[in-house]
Design brief:
Blueprint (H helix, E strand, L loop, with lengths): L3 H14 L4 E10 L9 E5 L4 E3 L5 H11 L7 E6 L16 E9 L3 H14 L5 E6 L5 E5 L7 E3 L3 E6 L4 E5 L3 H12 L3 E5 L3 H4 L7 E4 L3 H9 L4 E5 L4 H11 L6 E4 L3 H13 L5 H5 L1 E2 L11 H16 L8
Helix pairs in contact: 1-3, 4-10, 6-7
């Protein structure tokens, strides 16, 4: 399944290359309940064609009407939907929420197209970028993103948006914990891939919106299955699955690497990975073992909750000391 943001930016690039002006919209913030998360994209051309989503339908109609009326002629505008004096802005969201949307009016040209092409590269997982938009002039800049953190950072005079591939969860092997982790992660918007070569284990596994690959997770990782927006978790208690996955994962840019086990089991595993796998202290330090937040988890559901909470913590740039 192709990441929707990637589809949106590719379409924006196509329209720009065809000489069409475009309006690229980014959800900056949501207040209360809202169908789409900050960072979600939508693009519109002068003919009223559009791709993407801001709210699941209700805001889009009002926005398209505003574009047709010429209300977004400036290079950059921030508009709030769900409250305010303007009739268009007071459009009701189905969940009763409020949206702040950044609207960039982009004229066709080499500079805009180069900017969009860089975004495509980032959304394909080839790099991670921060887009900075000057709210006075509309000037856009791109910087390498080397840290985890909030997707949107907003100041008085500028907005920064993290651009990267769809957040991916790679499950190294199937277990009852993997089952619940997959279900949680899909609900959180992750692209979820489960790798397990054991046909007797996964023959009857049913996981909706999850890609199941019948191969060693270590092989999938070695073949380029991880990018810098990937979390790799091993939850089987089978060293043939878990250890090999860890050995390959630490050689990638995955932002989270973790393996399930008690404190004693984890210590033995790290010693084994050092002695047999040849991992360095720096590589071992990247592995979360025991995995997840310490919330007293016992059941598969509780363990999965602890794992996903820790992944979200790291993705958001929050240290354990801040919890």
């Amino acid at each position: 399944m192709q990441h929707m943001d990637l589809q949106v930016v590719r379409r924006a690039l196509e329209w720009s290359q065809a000489g069409q002006p475009i309006w690229l919209c980014t959800v900056l913030a949501t207040y209360g309940s809202a169908p789409r998360a900050p960072g979600s994209l939508l693009v519109v051309n002068a003919q009223g064609q559009w791709l993407g989503s801001l709210s699941g339908g209700c805001v889009e109609e009002a926005f398209l009407e505003q574009v047709a009326q010429g209300e977004f002629a400036r290079p950059v505008t921030i508009v709030r939907y769900g409250e305010g004096d303007d009739a268009q802005a007071r459009v009701s969201l189905p969940c009763g929420g409020v949206l702040d949307v950044l609207v960039e009016h982009m004229q066709p040209g080499c500079e805009v197209q180069a900017h969009l092409q860089q975004m495509v590269s980032a959304l394909r997982g080839q790099q991670r970028l921060i887009r900075e938009v000057d709210l006075s002039s509309g000037a856009r800049s791109l910087f390498a993103d080397r840290e985890q953190g909030l997707r949107i950072e907003r100041e008085i005079d500028r907005v920064r948006v993290r651009v990267g591939a769809a957040q991916r969860l790679l499950l190294a092997g199937y277990s009852s914990v993997s089952q619940v982790c997959a279900e949680f992660a899909v609900g959180l918007g992750f692209e979820v891939i489960l790798c397990d070569p054991r046909e007797e284990v996964i023959a009857d596994v049913v996981l909706y919106n999850v890609e199941i690959r019948r191969q060693l997770p270590s092989q999938f990782i070695a073949d380029g299955g991880c990018h810098c927006d990937t979390a790799v978790v091993a939850l089987t208690h089978d060293p043939r699955i878990d250890d090999l996955a860890m050995i390959e994962a630490v050689r990638t840019d995955a932002f989270y690497i973790g393996v399930m086990g008690s404190l004693q089991t984890s210590q033995k595993r790290l010693e084994r990975l050092s002695r047999v796998g040849g991992l360095t202290d720096a590589e071992l330090a990247r592995i979360h073992a025991p995995i997840g937040l310490n919330i007293g988890s016992r059941t598969p559901g509780e363990i999965a909750l602890a794992v996903l909470a820790d992944i979200v913590r790291v993705r958001s740039g929050v240290s354990r000391d801040q919890l």
